[in-house]
Amino acid sequence: MKGVSLPLGFTFSFPCQQTNLDEGILLKWTKGFKATGCEGEDVVNLLKEAIHRREEFDLDVVAVVNDTVGTMMTCGYEDPYCEVGLIVGTGSNACYMEEMRNVELVEGEEGRMCVNMEWGAFGDSGCLDDIRTEFDLAVDELSLNPGKQRFEKMISGMYLGEIVRNILMDFTKRGLLFRGRISERLKTRGIFETKFLSQIESDCLALLQVRSILQHLGLETTCDDSIIVKEVCTVVARRAAQLCGAGMAAVVDKIRENRGLDFLKVTVGVDGTLYKLHPHFSTVMHETVKQLSPKCEVTFLQSEDGSGKGAALITAVACR
Asked: Quick check: pTM over 0.85?
């Protein structure tokens, strides 16, 4: 690799102001990340400087791409109907193809442009307050970015386990669980990982195995406790999937209305661990989309490392 400058596609999954294909100013960190001296800076320059400091090779960053856009591009390569990208993993976000006439920031009325929605921040204006619970508020207050990314905090993998932990604490205080005794482990933030949610909700899991997961958390449980914990996990994950489906239904319906169509056939490219690994999340989300946008036929296409391949595709097109 010495002596050559290789073109690079850079996937960067954080809110950026993007003025050029190869320039992205980081607006704010999300998903629990914090690194000083980056917000307000061009992340492409920061990456280039870091590469130069190594003095080993040179890379020409051709494109900086959000992971939703990368996912949409990868799936679009397989399916020409793919015009939406969705990530449901540690965080959550979506992008879609918007008509140029509706894009105020760019000149021209013809054609379409991909819009990265940063939908995790939906609700930051207070419009979700009616459906946020005391447990959502508790998780938000103790997060690294209080008051921000409110929609994401109700949906994505980073936060679901913490919502469950807060509910279990409340139930225990009220004497409904664990004989009213709160263990030190249960008081520990982040102890209830989202992967436990997936395991506990797995259909083939007997209550005995639910108990062993809880015992691993230092919780002495009865059979009734296990039933309640499983129900809490089900409700929290189901709500997340329904909220995600509601957002997706709104997006596909907007595309349909933009084009003045009575019926729209569209594909959504999806990536993210929560969508892929949780036993019921995708099913509930698909049902919700079907229910809320009856005039759209929506197909979901899973992408394998969508963000990486998508960035490479965009870079290849730009180089050509």
From this structure: yes
